[in-house]
Amino acid sequence: MIKKILMPTDGSETARKALNYAVDLAKQTGATITLLSVIDTRFHIAQQIPASSEVPLTETMQDYLRQNAQSFIEAAEKVSRAKGLKSKKVIRSGHPIEEILEEAEKSKVDLIIMGSHGKTALEAAFLGSITFGVIHRDTKYPVLIVRK
Ligand code: ATP
Ligand code: MN
């Protein structure tokens, strides 16, 4: 029943916990994992500045964010490979909630596994906004939330 798992990661500690859970479940079920990192384009300061004057800044920033995403998705792939699992790496950019759900549809996943919190990990927050957004959208995808 579980053949494809989508594991969105922001490289945080809780996302790492969720990855371990996903890897163990994939081993038990024979599922494959799609690792997804979304370059969040919501708040980039560079986008507030007229593009003509600040193109280098924008590019530097995008490069930095892409490299960052690349490095933690590769770390995640290492973890899954060490357990003998094959995984697919996907990097997207945009709004994390939209991109996670679009990838779920594109890869036809059966389950999304993510952390309750991410990089911000506010003590007071019951749930991070990305996870909150994913579970509150009207979609058909089951979501498993691993607590911090
Ligand atoms: P907030 O972002 O709302 O300030 P937070 O960072 O603590 O709070 P979320 O961003 O919702 O919480 O993170 C929860 C989970 O969502 C992470 O453990 C990870 O699985 C996933 N996630 C968050 N951001 C991304 C991203 N940019 N790309 C892929 N997955 C993400
Ligand atoms: Mn976050």
Structure description:
It is a single chain. By secondary structure, this protein is α/β, with parallel strands linked by helices. The protein contains 4 helices and 5 strands, in the order βαβαβαβαβ. It has helices at 13-29, 51-82, 96-106, 129-136; strands spanning 4-8, 32-40, 87-94, 111-115, 143-146. Strands 3-2-1-4-5 form a 5-stranded parallel β-sheet, sandwiched between helices. Helix 3 (96-106) packs across helix 4. The two termini are 27 Å apart. The mean pLDDT is 91. The structure holds adenosine-5'-triphosphate and manganese (II) ion (MN). Residues 10, 118-120, 128, 130 line the site of manganese (II) ion. Manganese (II) ion binds next to loops.
The tally of strands reads 5
Shape: globular
SS-derived structural category: alpha/beta
> Can you give the helix content as a percent range?
40-55%
What ligand species are in this complex? adenosine-5'-triphosphate, manganese (II) ion
Give the distance, in angstroms, between the N- and C-terminal Cα atoms: 27 Å
**Overall mean pLDDT:** 91
Strands in their spatial order, largest beta sheet = 3-2-1-4-5
- Which H/E pattern describes the elements? EHEHEHEHE
Number of helices: 4
Unreliable sequence segments: none
Instruction: Provide the β-strand percentage band.
Output: 15-25%
The profile of the biggest β sheet is: 5 strands, parallel
- What is Rg? 16 Å
